[in-house]
Design a protein that fits this description.
The chain is mainly alpha-helical. The chain is 76% helix and 0% strand. Helix 4 packs parallel to helix 10 and helix 5 packs antiparallel against helix 11. 26% of the residues are buried. The mean pLDDT is 88.
């Protein structure tokens, strides 16, 4: 466990250190310049320029903004995970009900065709999950759905503005048709329609997270406070620690910039970054669940 702790502490992949390193070096370089200036002009007092960094109100506001930034970003990350959890639960339940509740037609020659339609409609749930992932990442569906849908269906989806919503319409249309043909009970129809509504609700929650970023005023103000603090800190420290000022400023700026960057990393949890939600793995799990349901044979 001890070695695992140190391995994680020095892990580069997923860390914000490589991202903030150029900014840390800028602040440390500025601090080094202040140290050089103080070495050659020691009679000039620089402490007055650094008094701001020792101000209680300034430090309190900076700390509160950093906490607010991190908490807000994590709330968005967790809300995104809950939204995808809602999608997974309703896809599992809807696929299960569609497989069990929808009966085959009485005529033998229609059974194979109806069974294929049912399996294809259940596979639309996998297509919905993949399409939602691509929609949140603002990516084209391209060849991602070729194994699930026909070429004509993929082409049709390429011409609609909202692919996941279109797939829910296909699902609703299929269920409506089966109910009109008395393939299942009306109560099942109400339940399955509610679960499709829940899929749309989960999708809408993800869109709300994606399209409602932290107000720009908060981000600008926080960055300005960090700039003021990191550029003012060397004037306060150089009188006491001289040539160690650059190291101290580098460490402090690493802490402040790191906390801010963590908020930036998890603010949009639907991308490809290491700190984003594992949506690819979630979609793969959904695909496996749906295939298991389709392969189920009633005893």
């Amino acid at each position: 466990m001890t070695f695992q702790w140190f391995d994680l502490a020095f892990k580069v992949q997923g860390s914000v250190a490589p991202i903030i390193l150029p900014r840390v070096l800028i602040f440390a370089g500025f601090a080094l310049g202040i140290s050089v200036f103080h070495y050659y002009e020691p009679q000039i007092s620089l402490k007055v320029f650094g008094d701001m960094t020792n101000n209680v109100v300034f430090n309190l506001v900076l700390g509160l903004l950093l906490v607010f930034r991190t908490n807000t970003a994590y709330d968005r990350y967790w809300e995104g995970r809950k939204a995808w959890g809602t999608l997974v639960v309703n896809i599992r339940n809807l696929s299960r009900l569609m497989q069990i509740a929808i009966h085959s037609p009485p005529l033998e020659e229609q059974k194979d065709e109806e069974q294929k339609d049912k399996e294809k409609s259940i596979q639309l749930l996998t297509a919905f999950a993949i399409a939602t992932k691509l929609h949140l990442r603002n990516e084209e569906i391209s060849t991602h759905l070729n194994q699930i849908l026909t070429e004509d269906e993929v082409l049709k989806l390429n011409n609609v503005k909202h692919v996941p919503l279109e797939l829910t319409l296909w699902l609703s249309s299929y269920l409506q048709k089966q109910m009109q043909n008395d393939r299942f009970d009306t109560n099942y129809f109400v339940t399955m329609n509610s679960q499709i509504n829940a899929l749309v609700e989960g999708l809408t929650s993800c869109e709300r997270i994606l399209k409602t970023p932290l107000p720009i005023a908060y981000r600008i103000y926080l960055k300005r406070l960090i700039l003021i603090y990191c550029f003012g800190l060397p004037f306060h420290l150089v009188i006491d620690i001289h040539w160690l000022t650059a190291i101290a400023v580098g460490l402090v700026s690493f802490i402040l910039l790191g906390v801010e960057q963590i908020g930036n990393e998890i603010e949009n949890p639907f991308g490809h970054d290491f700190n984003d939600l594992p949506i690819d793995e979630i979609c793969e799990g959904i695909s496996n669940n749906v295939n298991q349901v389709i392969s189920y044979q009633s005893p």
